Amino acid sequence: MTRFTLALLISLFSFAAQGATIVPSPPQVAAKAYFLIDATSGTVLVEHNADIALPPASLTKMMTSYVLAGEIAAGRVNDSDMVVVSRNSWSQNPEFNGSSLMWIEPGMDVSISDLKRGIIISSGNDATVAVAEHLAGSVSAFADMMNGHAEALGMTGSYFANPHGLPHPDHVTTARDLATLAIALINRYPEEYAVYKEREFTYNNIKQYNRNTLMGEDPSVDGLKTGYTKEAGYGLVASAKRRDMRLVSVVLGTKSPNARKSESRSLLNYGFRFFETVTYFSPMEELEKPRIWKGQQDYLSLGVQDALVFTLQRGKKKSLNTVVEMDKEISAPIVLGDQLGTVKLMLDGEVVAQAPLVALEAVEPGNFFARLWDMILMWIASLFSA
Q1: How many helices (H) and strands (E) are present in the chain, helices listed first?
Q2: Which among 21, 118, 124, 157 would be 20 to 30 A from 342, CA to CA?
Q3: Cβ neighbour number for residue 86 with a 10 Å cutoff
């Protein structure tokens, strides 16, 4: 091989490498467990010990908030309802000694709206008990509600014994489950989720600031919750949106408030830098128009009922190829929505997303002569394909 040829090959290889998306290994995160997911597509980007049961500390309050949001959505309570504070939910309850509080007192009337912020922003353990007793009558009954919601969400690694997350031997969750809960909060209860990005809350002349300080350093971060106990270490569930991509990160069991913040930032930056959420096709967009036999028309519009949403390495979208597979010859009658094939998106020979190909219109059978003529044409075609 001549020196010129070798130099040319090296140059061409270098050019190709420069155009390729090179994704490094995920960041090494100093936490007992961590997780990063595309909240829209559900694609897991990074995970470590994601299904290990760990104490969640105040991350528990995400579920307390979720249950409350569900009760508000169902019309069983509303933000203006007043809650009478019991001695169990008193800030001076010895169980709460040294923990985060909203500073409510027995006999006070406190609105659901204030308690909600006391839970989410102030991380008040007293506020969680007040809400639990108001919604369920007791902490134990409210824990049953929490576990019912966890089961409905598929949070198979979680068990809740209380609404605040103070240590209990059976009270555990997982990084994956917390991400599932965060995504459910974001998607199902946007009004509740909006409270998570409020920066401060004043109650009883006491101003408290949101403990999720990552929001102050990264404007794309708009939630969710911090947690800490000696047993759990420092944890953070964070969500951020940049352009059309929303990520949720979970870090559990870090050694300091700064560590949980910096490790969460590393995960989020990695996800946004090297991946993108792709939306392909529009609902009811015509993708194919094949021949239809024995009908009142000769061609049928096919498409997808819902857009395909998935996650790709950045820069790979332009390399996608569309493959349409038809199940069989199509004959009338056809009902709107009938599945008649599959559309696949391929990348480097692999299927990255697929969806049923459905009829975008209904087609009634043609008259007798039209059906007879089509049968003759189909018979002739079968002779040549045999």
Answers
A1: 10, 17
A2: 21
A3: 15
Give the chain's domains with CATH numbers.
33-275 (3.40.710.10), 281-385 (2.60.410.10)
Active-site option among 41, 61, 99, 266: 61
Of 41, 58, 249, 266, the catalytic one is 58
SS3 sequence, 335-355? CCCCEEEEEEEEECCEEEEEE
Joined tokens for residue 223: 């939630």
Question: How many angstroms from the chain centroid is the CA of residue 5?
Answer: 51
pLDDT at 223: 93
Alpha-helical segments (H) within the chain: 3-19, 61-73, 112-120, 125-136, 139-153, 175-188, 190-195, 214-217, 257-274, 368-385
Q: What 3-state class would DSSP assign to 57?
A: helix
Contacts of 263 (CB under 8 A, 6+ apart): 27, 29, 30, 31, 34, 251, 254
**CB-based contacts of 348: which residues, under 8 Å, 6+ apart?**
319
d(CA 361, CA 373): 23
Question: For residues 282 and 189, what is the distance between their CA atoms, to the nearest angstrom?
Answer: 25
Residues 193 and 147: their CA atoms lie apart, in Å, by 20
- Catalytic option among 65, 99, 123, 301: 123
Structure token pair of residue 63 = 């579920």
Confirm if 366 and 377 have CB atoms less than 8 A apart: no
3-state secondary structure of 27: coil
**Mind giving me the DSSP string for 109-134?**
EEEHHHHHHHHHTS--HHHHHHHHHH
* Structure tokens that stand for 21 in this block: 């998306």
One-letter identity of residue 158: S
Q: Which residue stretches of the chain have pLDDT < 50?
A: 1-17
Nearest by Cα to 121 from 205, 218, 187, 194: 194
Look up 61 and say whether it is catalytic: yes
According to the model, what pLDDT value does residue 372 have? 65
DSSP annotation of 24 reads P
